[in-house]
Amino acid sequence: MDVNSPWNVGAVYRLGDWGSARLAYERGAVVTAGFSLHTNFNQVDSFWLDDDAPRYAPTTTQTDLSAAQWQALSAQLASVAGYQDNQIHYDGDTVTVSGKQSKYRDQDIAQTRAATLIANTGIDAKQYRIIDQAERQPITETVIDTNTYAAVATNSYVGAQPSDARTRQLSSQTSGKIKANQRDNIDLGIAPVFVQSFGGSEDFYMYSLGLSGNAAARLGDHFIASSSVYVNIADTYDKFKYTVPPDGTDLKRVRTLNRQYLEDTVRVTNVQLTYLDHWGDNWYTQTYGGYLETMFAGVGGEVLYRPMDSQFAFGLDANYVKQREPGSAFGLFKNEYQPAENGNRGFRVQTGSTTGHATLYWQNPLSLFDGTLAKISAGRYLTEDVGVTVDIAKQFDSGITVGAYASKTDLSAEEFGEGSFTKGFYVSIPFDLLSVKPTTSRGGLSWQPLQRDGGQKLNRKHSLYQLTDGRAPWFTRPADSD
Fold first, then answer.
1. Which residues fall within 8 angstroms of residue 50, CB to CB, at 6 or more apart?
2. What Å distances lie between residue 338 and 150, 249, 327, 348, CA to CA?
């Protein structure tokens, strides 16, 4: 940079609570100007056009319902209470609902609606069991006492609360006959995909826009066969100036070859078979194999220990992977060394290696930082370096999460190249803040100032910690939760 003066002069003008403007004269050579927008993530509110909560009005007591009535209840549990992919069992004393809660981050709302819907059928039962599932694996169970809930719903005593009738416990097996089944073993969908990056050396702003077609087939309650195909519509990533970083580093190009993968108009991003299961009360597992992400294929597995309502969880994943060959739907690199082409020097790729990490998940570390999650992992990365990744996230009252991460491995700054080590930050936003319908889904924005090959992890389709979130909610913490 040209330096014509040791003095820098700048000013900031506050436009109001919403923003500020700045102007500066730097190094005697450059004038800079900019705007900043301000907000308070604690005070972001949602506006929903939701179905009215059902009114407690039981019909005449019945010892059983017709098949049509059970199926109607199943449909209501999905649309009104948010329990998708549900099944209903009944054994004469207990109505058991098992399904995935995909509508309300606040479980109290979902369970109260579900209990009212069941009670209004008039079915003769002593209790209702609600088993929350993720990918059909049981996460938590809530037992609602029928008589106590009736007293709460009719305000039979001062200070009645729905929680008076509920008991949260470890999930157990369902009992009784299946009365309704809303499960569909085939899932198909199309979703827009928009990727953008700021501040690159090739161009300040680059983007890609496309469509992702997704399909999944469930083979029972444990196996999932899934695939994704991406179709590119428009992008500016052809502005990349190089295939191999020109800094002389010799690491295997596990991420810096991304431009070559983006050149394919149609690309298969995922084809894999996954097995999900759980052991006892606190252990969850997954094993998987196939084309795991855009750049890598292989096999692997993960084990997670997560006690109910604990601020701690511990996970271990191990994988064997090979790098996929750009321009080929299912090809893999066979030779580690790739010769020089188009003015680029030769480079190395990953033709087979183990990678994996042990990870500690810690909510509200030391009870000093409310609404925070620390993830500390140690292990081997894709380019065979070994080190530690620290990820710290803060969740605001609205549910918006802001986090930052850094990975430091046994690579020196010279071996790693420009940037010295991997780091970045991200923002995760609950979709129910943006849409007019409640949902537990989230969207994310992330920024890694410089993508290099050191400290890079495999992108796995499923995260057991996120799947088991209901055991100690983080991703689905209700708004304004302490």
1. 437, 438
2. 71, 15, 15, 6
Q: State the burial class of residue 376 (Cβ atoms within 10 Å of its Cβ: 0-12, 13-18, 19+).
A: middle
CATH 2.40.160 fits 187-471, yes or no: yes
Question: Helix (H, G, I), strand (E, B), or coil: what is residue 256?
Answer: coil
> Hey, is 239 helix, strand or coil?
helix
The sheet that has 9-16: what strands, in order across it? 9-16, 19-26, 30-37
Q: In the chain, where are the structural domains located? A: 9-38, 67-181, 187-471
* Range in 261-265, 372-376, 377-381 with the lowest mean pLDDT: 261-265
Spatial CA neighbour of 138 closest among 86, 92, 94: 86
The pTM of the full predicted model, rounded to 2 decimals, is 0.89
Please state, as a whole number, how many other Cβ atoms lie within 10 Å of the Cβ of residue 347: 22
pLDDT at 482 over 50: no
Tens of pLDDT, residues 146-164: 999 999 999 999 999 999 9
Strands (E), 28-174: 30-37, 83-90, 94-101, 127-134, 137-145, 166-169
Q: What are phi and psi of 62, to 5 degrees?
A: -130, 145
* Residue 184 structure tokens: 């569909």
Tell me how far apart the alpha carbons of residues 265 and 26 are, in angstroms, rounded to a whole number: 43
